Structure formats: structure tokens, C-alpha cells
Amino acid sequence: GDMIEAQVVGFDHTVAYLMPIRRLGGLFAGAKVIPLDGDSTVQLSSQWMGRVVNGLGEPLDDGMPLKGGDRVSLEPKPINPLKRRPVDTPLNVGVRAINGLLTVGKGQRIGLMAGSGVGKSVLMGMITKNTEADVIVVGLIGERGREVREFIERNLTPEAREKAIII
Prior knowledge:
By secondary structure, this protein is α+β, with helices and mostly antiparallel strands. It has helices at residues 96-101, 120-130, 145-155, 158-162; strands spanning 6-12, 15-20, 41-44, 70-73, 90-91, 104-105, 136-138, 164-166. The protein has one domain: Rossmann fold (3-Layer(aba) Sandwich), CATH 3.40.50. A two-stranded antiparallel ribbon has the order 1-2. A two-stranded antiparallel sheet has the order 3-4. It has a two-stranded antiparallel ribbon with strand order 5-6. α2 (120-130) packs across α3 (145-155).
């Protein structure tokens, strides 16, 4: 039958708990589990700019297939925090309230979490459009496909989309 890729997310004595990477279909009790060698990787290149990809780096838009680039692990080794460059230079995100009260630093990651209907997408669009950066990675984790499309269509100008990678 078809192969269903999954990640081991836990153990309980002799039982391994698996999280499927794609939709389940045709799975049954007693199905054979085969461990795969190596890390999960993607080929990362400048072709990702302006594109919408899933968590495995596969294009979701109607663009050309993504080929070439450096193979990068989806589970990299953590960087020693004592060897990281300090975040000490403010980043202009083009939103005065954030620049003045909640300053973001160059190289810093930010998360934006709030209830539905409070303006997260609008704020993320403003940040993506107005931030002075070469590349902006927007992770729409847990969003439905319709919401991803609406975010792009309503909140990103063509210029903003060119410098963004939307996952």
C-alpha cells in the first residue's frame, strides 16, 4: 500500500507515538512501521522568495517547482546560545507603536498570537510590507488554506510578497 510518513513524538514503555506528516488514509491496526534513515531536509534556495510553501518546503502556489539549493535539515542542532550574535540593533518594522514600545531587534524572531478577528493578519501584513529587510519569513502555522490565501491577497503588496517566504 501507500507509505505514510510520520514523526515519532513520544514513547510509553513499548509503544511509540507517531504524528503523521500528511493526511492519513488506509492506515490499519498492525500496519508495518519502517524507520527511515537521516533527517528530514529541504532544498533551500533564493527560488523560495515570493513563494508559498508547506512545512516540507513543497510549493502550494502555482509557481514552478523549487529545484536546487542547499540541503538544510528541518531538525537542525541547536546553536549554543553563548555563541549567538547579540540582538542589539533595532529593526524598523514600519509600525510606530511597535518601534516605540515593543522594539524588535535585527535577527530577532517574533511570534504573534491572539484570538480570531483582532487584526493579526493586518499587523503581519504591515510588518511584512514595511520592514527594512532582505528576506521576511512568515510562518502561518495552523492556519487553514483559505486564511493563507486571504492573508496574501488582502495584506501583501506585490513588492512585499517578493521579499517574503510564506510557510
